Amino acid sequence: MERIRLDFPDEAIIHRHTLAVRITDMNYGRHLGHDALVSLLHEARVAALASLGLVEWDLGGCASVVADLAVQYQAEARWPDALMAETAVRPPEGKALTVYQRLRHADDDRLVATARLNLVLLDPANGRPAAVPASVRDALVQAGAA
C-alpha cells in the first residue's frame, strides 16, 4: 500500500488552536471520522488566519478555494479527547497559499494527523486565479511564516 508522507514545516507555524472531539465527530469505528477531521482542520485554519487579521473568504479582496488536500492519518482520537491543531504556512508562491496542519492529542502530544492543502486565490471580478495580495504576504511575514 502506498502511503502519503507529509513533512510539517515547524519553522512556519503561525498559530496553535485547541479543539475537542465532539460526539458527532465519531464514526462507526468509534473514533474521529475522516470527514469530521477535515472540518476540525478547517476550523483551526480559519482561526489561524483570523489571528493574523485575515478572513479566509476575503484574503486581501480575493476569495479562496481549496484546490487539493492531502491527509496523513497517524493515530485515532475519540470523544471527548482534547486536541491541539498547529497551522503553518509556507511563503506564498504564485496564486496559492500552501497550508500545513498538524493535529495532536493535547495531553500527551501524540500525532493524530498531518495535512497539507493549497488555497487558490480567486479574483472576485472574473473568478480566475489571482496573485497573493501584498496585504496577505505582509501578514504572513509578520507572523514569521514567510
TrEMBL record:
Record's keyword terms, sorted: Hydrolase
The UniProt record lists the keyword Hydrolase: yes
Recorded GO MF terms: fatty acyl-CoA hydrolase activity
CDD domains in the cross-refs: 4HBT (cd00586)
UniProt keyword annotation of Hydrolase present: yes
Gene3D superfamilies xrefs: Hotdog Thioesterase
Family affiliation: Belongs to the 4-hydroxybenzoyl-CoA thioesterase family.
Protein known as: Acyl-CoA thioesterase FadM
